[in-house]
């Protein structure tokens, strides 16, 4: 066990990349500059999430020229959360920093994060004190989302945080045992527990390129977060259904009373409004139940979370970690069959 631990790099930096060819070389330079003063034992895991530009070609070049770089190419675009999960499966460091490749989160904070972890933290997460280069709409919706999520979930998820964090090996290994498909990494890590410490920082504007999170993806991400960590919408649907049924019963009693008094209200408008109201409410409640049911169907299928097309590690042998093969046997076979890093 001690030999295995010492053979691990001290720190792994994991970065999912989607169409980031404009920023990758600068990202690699800054991450390397952040790692070198701390240790010579580090690795940079760059995960190409099915990019359509020259991202993978640049990753291959970096892996060939720098023995610290491990390139991972996914078979198709899986989305940010699954691409990050793939990188965490591959990363073998005693500590693992998860960061986006767009340089909005400064890799230079690695030293501060390492120091806080030396003091006993299990997770050090970046907490945004300021957000440069973002519209007022995105800042407002993000603030509203985190405050809503805090009220809906039983797990304490810090506000104004992303996936930018440094995690101990114990936390990463526990995270890799969690098999759900609709992943909300910051919530999953918060659920694990341990001593989790905030590191306030100023988030920068993108170094280059455009945001990979338009409004549609933000809504889908928020839906995954809420349905993954809260059953409050289900309980709310039940209470709304009970309230509506009670209101309907009162309307029925009122209608019967009016009938006994020979008071008949002529007109179809009131009937149409009532039918439309209750019909729409029922469809809303069914939609909430359907959202959760759909997720259960996806989980029951048990398909691999992601498929790896190739791994590049230049002249350095980079073994597939044992937990990687244990979690996804089909995925492991694909990695082994396409392995091309020397040895």
Automatic annotation (TrEMBL):
Location, primary (coarse class): membrane
Bilayer-crossing regions: 236-257, 263-289
Protein name, entry field: Glycosyltransferase family 2 protein
GO molecular function, one term: glycosyltransferase activity
Organism lineage: Bacteria, Pseudomonadati, Pseudomonadota, Alphaproteobacteria, Acetobacterales
Assigned keywords, A-Z: Glycosyltransferase, Membrane, Transferase, Transmembrane, Transmembrane helix
Compartments where located: Membrane
Annotated EC: 2.4.-.-
Ranges where the Glycosyltransferase 2-like domain occurs: 12-173
Membrane topology of this protein: Multi-pass membrane protein
CDD domains for this protein: DPM1_like_bac
Protein species of origin: Teichococcus globiformis
């Amino acid at each position: 066990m001690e030999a295995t631990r010492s053979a691990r790099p001290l720190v792994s930096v994991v970065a999912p990349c989607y169409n980031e060819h404009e920023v990758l070389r600068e990202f690699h330079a800054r991450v390397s500059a952040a790692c070198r003063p701390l240790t010579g034992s580090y690795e940079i895991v760059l995960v190409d999430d099915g990019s359509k530009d020259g991202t993978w070609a640049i990753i291959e070049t970096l892996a060939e020229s720098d023995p610290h770089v491990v390139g991972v190419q996914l078979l198709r675009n899986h989305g940010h959360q699954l691409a990050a999960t793939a990188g965490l499966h591959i990363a073998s460091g005693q500590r693992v920093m998860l960061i986006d490749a767009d340089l909005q989160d400064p890799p230079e904070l690695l030293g501060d994060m390492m120091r806080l972890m030396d003091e006993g933290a299990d997770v050090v997460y970046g907490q945004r004190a300021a957000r440069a280069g973002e519209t007022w709409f995105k800042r407002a919706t993000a603030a509203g989302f985190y405050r809503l999520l805090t009220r809906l979930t039983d797990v304490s998820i810090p506000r104004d945080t992303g996936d930018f964090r440094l995690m101990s090996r114990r936390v990463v290994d526990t995270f890799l045992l969690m098999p759900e498909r609709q992943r909300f990494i910051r919530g999953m890590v918060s659920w694990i527990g341990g001593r989790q410490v905030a590191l306030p920082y100023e988030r920068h504007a993108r170094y280059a390129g455009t945001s990979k999170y338009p409004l549609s993806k933000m809504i889908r991400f928020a839906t995954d977060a809420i349905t993954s960590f809260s059953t409050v919408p289900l309980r709310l649907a039940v209470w709304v259904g009970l309230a509506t049924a009670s209101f309907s019963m009162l309307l029925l009693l009122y209608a019967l009373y009016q009938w006994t008094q020979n008071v008949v209200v002529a007109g179809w408008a009131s009937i149409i409004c009532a039918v439309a109201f209750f019909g729409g409410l029922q469809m809303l409640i069914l939609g909430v139940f359907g959202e959760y049911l759909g997720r259960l169907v996806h989980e029951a299928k048990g398909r691999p979370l992601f498929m790896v097309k190739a791994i590049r590690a230049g002249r350095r042998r980079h073994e597939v970690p044992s937990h990687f093969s244990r979690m996804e046997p089909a995925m492991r076979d694909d990695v082994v069959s396409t392995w091309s890093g020397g040895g």
